[in-house]
Amino acid sequence: MKNLLITGLLLLFVSLSKAQTFNTFYAEVVANISESNLLSDLTTFEKFGVKTVGSPALTHTENWISHRYESMGYTDVVLQPFTYRKGSSNNIIVTKTGTIYPYTFLIIDAHYDTINGPGTNDNGTGTVLLLEMARLLKDVETEYSIKFIHFSGEEDGLIGSKFYVKNTVVPENMDIKLVFNIDEVGGVSGLTNDTVVCEQDLGAPTFNNAASSAATESLAILMGLYSTLNTQISKTYGSDYMPFENNGEIITGLYEKNISPVNHSANDNLENMDVGYFYEVVRGAIGAAMEFAVAYETSSLVEQKYYERILKIYPDPSNSYLNIEFDEPLEDEVEFKLMDRLGKEIYTKTISEQNFRFATDFIASDTYEAVFKMGNKRFVKTVVVE
Ligand SMILES: [Zn+2]
Q: Which parts of the sequence belong to the Peptidase M28 domain (predicted)?
């Protein structure tokens, strides 16, 4: 969507001086993006034609997206139907379950409907970016769950995302860590496209604005770490994150800096965008998503056995206290969390000594997961508290 004047937008240049640090594992995953996949997907998207709600072109696109997830091996691919004056359409919702916080979600979304033209930039770019991200993250473990959502009806007034918030987020009281919206990130052919806009919430309600601002500053830093792009911070408007924002969720988004003069027209095609710029946006967005979802490296069997050998947790079952003991001195601090069945933290501690003990008599009798975070690795052990 996005028909708006730049005037009055808050434009801030962000310095690359804050919290997020470069993660070599994330960079390895980012390095695996396939430019030929991206180009071929954009071409396919373009060839479907004008994807207005009610058109066969949109249905073909929907089928293509769903099949792509299924062929990647995703099993939780859900179509959410809705109907309005234009006709019926579906949001496509794909869930990847997190290992530590399965009931807390990073939502990464892009609309796949278009208006007046093939919409290769608006929003073939967001659509294809999600597909490539999902491909690369398929077998990467993340602490938080991710929902990849392809909304429809965006061009008619955010119909699909409003429907999702009203009929899923609100009734299910979904715990959303962050909404990360991608809409029109293809740049403009013939111009120098070296900057991506990271969008923060400046609107009402305002209680969630500081968190959006922090997430957006992180996003800008992460885009800088994993792509060659410069970043600029501006405000959120006119896309699928807005219904989430109205519900009080924390939102952020990516948008092109040079704004396409041909969006919402028959000329919104590959020829009029800058594919090299788009590849960089994909790189940055994947690095950012890994940070937001807290991706980590799966331990090898040898590493698992090593942790099992050096790490003792006793007594099991625990009655009034738990001892945690490492057989070897720690090289680095270990982050420890005791998680309940609902993915809620019961106890957390940064461990720097080889032995420590904590009282468990304040904890309800149940089965818990003891999670140890060591750099990019995790070790998880089930413990019973009586
Ligand atoms: Zn759009």
A: 91-277
Mean of the per-residue pLDDT values of the chain: 93
pLDDT of residue 7 exceeding 70: no
Q: How far is it, in rounded angstroms, from Cα 218 to Cα 372?
A: 25
Query: Is pLDDT at 359 greater than 60 in this prediction?
Result: yes
| Å from CA of 235 to ligand 1 middle | 15
- CB contact set of 321 (below 8 Å; sequence gap of 6+): 357, 358, 359, 360, 361
> How far is Cα 323 from Cα 311, in angstroms, rounded to an integer?
10
Distance from residue 88's CA to the centre of ligand 1 (Å): 19
Residue 231 half-sphere exposure toward CB, CA atoms < 13 A: 26
Domains in the chain: ranges and CATH: 12-296 (3.40.630.10), 301-385 (2.60.40.3080)
Say how many Å lie between the CA of residue 92 and the centre of ligand 1: 16
**C-alpha to C-alpha distance for 308 and 116, rounded to whole angstroms:** 59
